[in-house]
Amino acid sequence: MRYQAVESPNAQQDSLPVPPRKVLHSIDARLNALEPRLSWFYARLLLLTGVSWAIQAAELVLFDFTRVLVANDIGMSTLVLQVYAASIFMGSIAGGPIFGHIADQFGRRIAIVIAMVFSLGGLAVSARANAGNILIVGRIVTGLGFGGQLTSTVVLVRELAPRSMSGRVVSLLDAFTGIGGLFGVALAFAVAPRLGWRTTYLAACGLVLYAIVLRFTVPESPRWLASVGRTEEACGIVEKIEHLHGIQASGDNTQKTELEFTSALESPS
Q1: Alpha helices in the chain, H assignment, sequence order
Q2: Domains and CATH numbers, the chain
Q3: Is the pTM of this model over 0.85?
Q4: What is one Pfam family matched by this protein (predicted)?
């Protein structure tokens, strides 16, 4: 199969939605060639994504540790309370595949942002609930976001890191689970008994604003960008990572990648 010659960038995008493997391999090779060390770029990436991970853990712990307060206020039966406790996992089962599809279609970063909105949106629904069934719905919505954010965040962090340190960055990301869990315990035992569980839930919903921070501070996966034909953006992100990793940006790598892309259009895949 040969790629069709094109007369304009728009026509090229229509006829070639996915770039040749050569370009993807070039982006992948440049990232994998990075020295496996925690440079400023990766420290910042882990901090930004780790905070969102911690927010998820805090929300999960807050839900669990305030069940008694919620049950006493709403008047739930033992069966409803048990379903309420398990409903977040019902949502999480669907959240992973749904947001995995979103991540493949629209990008890893946007999937994380939307999942975070779902997760905290479910908390807001729970805060306004006056019956057990509404609480369960809110918790299922939270589960959708919970499952989607965890998987999308892991994929993004792994794709931004060289393969030789992908395990390390994911394990460091997971450390934020403990930090968030401790924060959730503090909310459940120090804040909720004084202000009430509804007020505590609504206050925690304010953390949804952090989704805006993620949208404008965390880079998209260059591997995903290259896979959908956005090679200039992919090369720009890789150059930034290389620069913050101590590699001088001469432009040679970018030119080489773009050259491979152009030449591959006229040669068999």
Answers
A1: 9-15, 21-32, 40-65, 67-74, 78-106, 108-127, 132-160, 166-186, 192-195, 197-205, 210-217, 222-227, 231-244, 252-265
A2: 39-218 (1.20.1250.20), 221-259 (no CATH)
A3: no
A4: Sugar_tr
Q: What is the pLDDT of residues 101-159, one digit of tens each?
A: 999 999 999 999 999 999 999 999 999 999 889 999 999 999 999 999 999 999 999 99
Other Cβ atoms within 10 Å of 178 Cβ, number: 11
Asked if 241 contacts 31 with a C-beta cutoff of 8 angstroms, the reply is: yes
Q: Fill in the amino acid letter for 9.
A: P
Q: Cβ of 244: how many Cβ atoms within 10 Å?
A: 14
Look at residue 102 in the predicted model and tell me its pLDDT. 96
**pLDDT at residue 262 above 80?**
no
- pLDDT for residue 254: 46
Tokens of 76: 């739930």
Secondary structure (3-state) at 65: helix
Distant-in-sequence contacts of 229-232, Cβ < 8 A, 24+ apart: 229/13, 229/16, 229/17, 229/18, 229/19, 231/19, 231/23, 231/27, 231/257, 231/258, 231/261, 232/258
Q: Rounded to whole angstroms, how far apart are CA atoms 10 and 29?
A: 28
212 touches 116 (CB < 8 A): no
| Three-class secondary structure of residue 230 per DSSP | coil
